[in-house]
Design brief:
Blueprint (H helix, E strand, L loop, with lengths): L1 E8 L4 H13 L3 E7 L4 E6 L6 H10 L3 E5 L10 H22 L17 H18 L1 H12 L5 H24 L11 H25 L1 H9 L3 E6 L2 E6 L8 E4 L8 E6 L2 E4 L1 H4 L5 E3 L4 E2 L4 E2 L4 E7 L5 H14 L3 H30 L4 H14 L3 H20 L2 E3 L3 H5 L5 E4 L1 H5 L5 E7 L6 H12 L5 H12 L7 E7 L3 E6 L2 E6 L1 H6 L7 H13 L2 E8 L2 E9 L6 H10 L3 E5 L4 H11 L3 E3 L4 H13 L4 E5 L5 H6 L2 E5 L4 H6 L2 E3 L5 H36 L11 H20 L3
Parallel strand pairs: 15-22, 15-24, 22-23, 24-25, 25-26
Antiparallel strand pairs: 1-3, 1-4, 2-3, 5-6, 5-7, 7-13, 8-11, 8-13, 9-10, 9-12, 14-26, 16-21, 17-18, 18-19, 19-20, 20-21
Length: about 725
């Protein structure tokens, strides 16, 4: 299966995006399609053996829209300059049109040449010509409306197209009757209604486009962070190249003041780098040989040479942009409700308009009044506001999260996070920094000294990805100890590791590894007692077993994250239960839990037990968020309602999670929950105003309030529709 995000042109409302989404999902070879109205994109997962990229573009075209190719985030910013110029020109024409058609009603002087009573033919023909200009201006709306009607997916454009053309055709008939000599039809001209409705729709689209661009700023800023050019060193000579020319393995040079061009590893020099765009950390990070650098970082004060490792789509920035765009293309459950309503809404409105038209004729009204009512209902009911209510708020919040260093993979997370009542934390690398150090060694061996035991253990741990392995790596580096050659290395998830050194088999792990291998030792009670003593000092304990005999206990210490205590306190104040879930021993876990304020601890668990714990909590009706960083956390992260991974975690943990904390800052979990609450509140407000508007305006358009002197015409309906969309847009932008 292949996945691609396409840039789509021609979508104007939720019925458009719904229609395209339904059409794509019906096609053979497409496994899944999700269309985003605000981002104007379509995320498509397809079987490359049945469908290719060209066919996808064809499907989009057949649905009545245009594919602009793959979305990269690097599209040129739409300045709306052309739209602005056209809007000004047609704004002037709209004033002229209204002056000619309605000026006499308010006593404005009228040119004799265009006097409707003295020269009705001139009057009708000039209005006709001006209206033709507006129909050309709004041809995209009319074309889209009828295409979607043909595809049985009528949308907002369908309502406008039917209304505008009905009004125009009847007015054209009236003009022909005037030319033929029947001047009574001069009062049956509704050209200005067709023209001004299009003008107001275009006004709404223009303002909508400007607002949508604002919601994409976070993504655009991320894309623009990466410089377009770089300096590479080839055979000792520096040469300026474009980013696209850089290849993996190239040596890239960065001087003070430069931005880092691609992700890589420093091979020469040292400097302080500003990575705040990614981490939110304002303090520059000190970087030296061996450290990683991220594209877009600013080199404050040093000269660096670094090896290019991740370029193009593989870079950190590209991956972030991809995650944000893909998240924006997923749909929160609340959005699906609005989409479903919009899907039924348009056909119902068309039916109401037709019934009203017939009803007016039956009651004896002239065709002009019936037609005006018909057009007014269609225009005033356009579900623009309804279509924007959810996706606009979601995209604004996605951008807010990305800017805060919270990468949300699916938009439904923004809906679900507000319901979280239980947060389960892994210990090592999550509540603690995972920067472990060896604090104590209890040597039970008769022939190996402490240094030799640590050298053997360090050589085996070097094959592991567990944070504890780093403590041994640092020890071997500090004391300049070489590593042994390891044979038959195995990683036993949740238990420990095994390997052979010079023909002897060694086991390293927690107490459960002894049970797993049925290790029996006459001093086992002594070891357990001494393990508890080490644990009371805050150590994680590693048993070292040589040929089925315990030869040492190694205590490894860790530092608690500086803000962990404050985060737990705030979560508890918000009535969110916090649980520590760890494979470490109970004594150590309790000690750290007590220090940071967690009352419930589940320790000595293997990955399967972690996953079962999450399942059991969910069975109890709890909404569970799991925060972890290691391979052993991955199943639990995937099982939780929301899986959160710290950025320092393993790739597999981040792949399994729904949210990545780029700064490794646990307080961002609180931010996520807060943003979720505000987003859903905002969406509910938007949906309320959208539904309230339609509920109020459709009856008025039908004419229910005419007996008390309240009525509207198509022009006022077009203005009202634009204002309703603006209300939703401005409300969504408050989230920024």
């Amino acid at each position: 299966m292949q996945k691609v995000v396409l840039k789509i042109d021609g979508m104007t409302c939720s019925a458009c995006s719904n229609g395209l989404e339904k059409y794509l999902n019906k096609q053979d070879g497409i496994a899944f399609a999700s269309v985003n109205l605000v981002m104007a994109t379509a995320q498509v997962e397809y079987d490359e053996t049945k469908v290719d990229r060209k066919m996808l573009d064809t499907f989009v075209k057949k649905a009545g829209f245009k594919s602009l190719g793959e979305y990269t985030g690097k599209e040129e910013e739409n300045s709306h300059k052309k739209d602005k110029i056209l809007f000004i020109i047609f704004g002037v024409l709209a004033v002229i049109l209204l002056y000619i058609s309605m000026g006499h009603m308010i006593g404005l002087p009228i040119f004799e040449f265009l006097n409707m009573h003295e020269n009705p033919i001139n009057y009708a023909v000039v209005l006709f010509i001006l209206t033709i200009a507006f129909l050309v201006y709004g041809f995209d709306i009319i074309k889209s409306g009828f295409k979607n009607l043909i595809h049985k997916a009528p949308n907002m454009d369908t309502l406008v197209a039917i209304g505008v053309l009905s009004s125009f055709l009847y007015s054209t008939y009236s003009m022909i009757m005037i030319i033929r000599g029947d001047n009574s039809f001069v009062h049956e001209l509704y050209f200005e209604s067709s023209a001004i409705v299009i003008f107001f729709i275009k006004l709404g689209r223009y303002l909508d486009g400007v607002s949508k661009d604002k919601t994409k700023e976070a993504i655009q800023k991320l894309v623009q962070i990466t410089p377009s050019k770089a300096i590479v060193k080839i055979d000792g000579v520096e040469k300026e190249v474009t980013i696209d020319e850089i290849k993996k393995g190239d040596t890239v040079v960065s001087h003070a003041g430069d931005r880092i061009s691609v992700d890589g590893k420093i091979i020469s020099g040292k400097a302080h780098l500003d990575e705040s765009f990614l981490t939110g950390e304002s303090k520059p990070a000190s970087k030296k040989v061996g450290d990683k650098v991220i594209a877009g970082s600013i080199n404050y004060d040093g000269y660096l040479e670094y090896e290019a490792e991740k370029i193009g789509r593989d870079s950190t920035i590209s991956q972030i942009v991809k995650l944000v765009v893909e998240a924006s293309n997923t749909k929160a459950p609340i959005a699906r409700v609005a989409d479903k309503v919009s899907g039924y809404f348009v056909p119902i409105v068309i039916l109401i308009a037709i019934v009203s038209f017939i009803f007016y004729l039956i009651l004896g009204s002239d065709i002009g009044e019936a037609l005006t009512t018909f057009v007014t209902i269609l225009v005033v009911a356009c579900p623009c506001a309804l279509g924007l209510a959810t996706p606009l708020a979601i995209v604004v919040s996605e951008g807010k999260c990305a800017k805060s260093g919270i990468l949300v993979k699916k938009s439904e997370i923004l809906e679900n996070a507000k319901n979280i009542d239980t947060i389960v934390f892994d210990k090592t690398g999550t509540l603690t920094y995972g920067k472990l150090k060896i604090s104590e060694v209890l040597n039970y061996s008769s022939n190996l000294n402490e240094e030799e035991i640590l050298r053997i253990a360090g050589s085996i741990e070097a094959r592991s990805t567990h944070p504890i392995a780093k403590a041994f790596e640092e020890y071997l580096k500090e004391y300049k100890l070489g590593k042994y050659n390891i044979e038959e290395f195995k990683n036993l998830s949740g238990l420990g590791i095994t390997g052979k050194v010079e023909g002897k088999e060694y086991l390293l792990g927690n107490y459960k590894i002894l049970e797993h291998f049925n290790i029996e030792d006459e001093n086992i009670d002594k070891y357990k007692k001494e393990e508890q003593e080490l644990a009371k000092k805050g150590n994680s304990i590693i048993y070292v077993v040589e040929e089925n005999k315990v030869i040492a206990l190694i205590g490894v210490n860790d530092l608690v994250r500086e803000n962990a205590k404050d985060v737990i306190k705030k979560l508890n104040e918000n009535n969110i239960e916090t649980i520590m879930l760890t494979g470490d021993n109970l004594e150590t876990a309790k000690l750290i839990a007590k220090e940071i304020g967690i009352s419930k601890v589940i320790a000595d668990v293997v990955p399967e037990e972690k996953t079962n714990t999450i399942r059991n909590l969910k069975k109890q009706g709890k909404k569970v968020l799991m925060c972890g960083d290691g391979i052993n956390d991955s199943p639990a992260l995937a099982t939780a309602d929301i899986g959160v991974s710290v950025n320092s975690g393993t790739d597999i943990a981040m792949d399994s999670s729904d949210v990545i904390l780029m700064k490794n800052d646990l307080s961002k979990i609180l931010d996520l929950i807060t943003i979720s609450k505000k987003t859903i509140r905002n969406i509910k407000q938007n949906l309320f105003w959208a539904f309230f508007y339609n509920s109020l305006m459709i009856p008025i358009a039908i004419g229910i309030l005419k007996p008390i002197g309240i009525s509207i015409n198509p022009m006022i309906a077009g203005l009202a529709m634009t204002l309703s969309s603006l209300t939703v847009i401005l409300n969504a932008l408050r989230l920024r």
